[in-house]
Amino acid sequence: MQALIHATQRGDIAAQVALVLADRDAAGLEVAQSLNIPTRCVLASESPDRETHDAAVLAALRDMGIEWVILAGYMRILTASFVTEWAGRMLNIHPSLLPRHKGLHTHRRVLEAGDPEHGTTVHFVTPELDGGPPVLQARFAIQPHDDEVRLRRKVQACEHQIYPEAAGWLIDARLRWQDGISTLDGKALHAPVNRFFDEDFFAEQGIPTT
C-alpha cells in the first residue's frame, strides 16, 4: 500500500489514492491517515455473510467515486458479484509465480517443492481464487541459504517494484482485460511480462545475500 501511495506522490502513477479500505483494524489505515488519505473500515465481523459485507464495501467505493481497485493485503475471498462489478478494473498481487502455489504459505511450499525460482504475480481478479490472468511477474533464483523469512523479504521487495508499474499500466489504459483477454499496448498478453531480480538488487534493499 505504501509503495502504491508513494508512486502516486512521485507521479509514477497518474492517479491519486482516494481511499484506503480495510475489513479490520489494519495498520495500513493509520499509515494512510498520517498521509491525509481518506480511510474506511468495513468490519467483516459485523456482516452475517460475505455477500452482505461485499455489498457494504461496494457502497463505500461508490460513495467515494472510486474508479480502480488495487488489492494490497486484503485477504478476504471476494464474491462473484463484487468481482463482476470491478472486472477489468481490479488488480491483485500474489506471492508466487502463478499458476504455481495458489493460496497461502507460498514461501514454505516453494521450498518444499524444491523450485529453482520464486517470485510474485500481478493479476486481474476473477471469481476463481488467484486464478485471474497474470499480467506482470517478478522472478528471482532461489539461493541455497534462502529460507521462508528471506523469501518473504525478497518477494516483498519485488512487489514494491512491480505492483506500482502494473497499476500505472491499468490507469493509463495501456493494460486492459476484456472478453477474457488481457492486452498491453493493444497486444494480447499470452504470458505475463517478466521482471528479473538478482542478489545485487536484494542487497540494495538491505537483504543480506549470505
Description of the molecule:
The protein has helices spanning 2-10, 27-34, 50-63, 80-85, 106-113, 148-171, 199-204, and strands at 20-22, 39-41, 69-70, 90-94, 117-124, 134-141, 175-178, 181-184, 187-188, 193-196. Helices cover 36% and strands 20% of the residues. It is an alpha/beta fold and 210 residues long. The mean pLDDT is 96. It has seven helices and ten strands. It is globular. The strands form three sheets. It has a five-stranded mixed sheet with strand order 3-4-5-6-10, covered by helices on one side. A three-stranded antiparallel sheet has the order 7-8-9. It has a two-stranded parallel ribbon with strand order 1-2. It has one domain: 3-Layer(aba) Sandwich (Rossmann fold), CATH 3.40.50.170.
The CATH architecture can be named as 3-Layer(aba) Sandwich
- Tally of distinct domains: 1
Which structural class best describes the helix and strand composition? alpha/beta
* Radius of gyration from the alpha-carbon trace, in angstroms: 17 Å
Mean pLDDT, to the nearest integer, reads 96
Q: What portion of the residues fall into strands of 2 or more residues?
A: 15-25%
Instruction: Give me the CATH superfamily.
Output: Formyl transferase, N-terminal domain
CATH class reads: Alpha Beta
Q: Could you tell me the CATH topology label.
A: Rossmann fold
In spatial order, strands of the major sheet run 3-4-5-6-10
Query: Count of helical segments?
Result: 7
Number of strands: 10
- Major sheet details: 5 strands, mixed
Shape: globular
**What's the helix-strand series?**
HEHEHEHEHEEHEEEEH
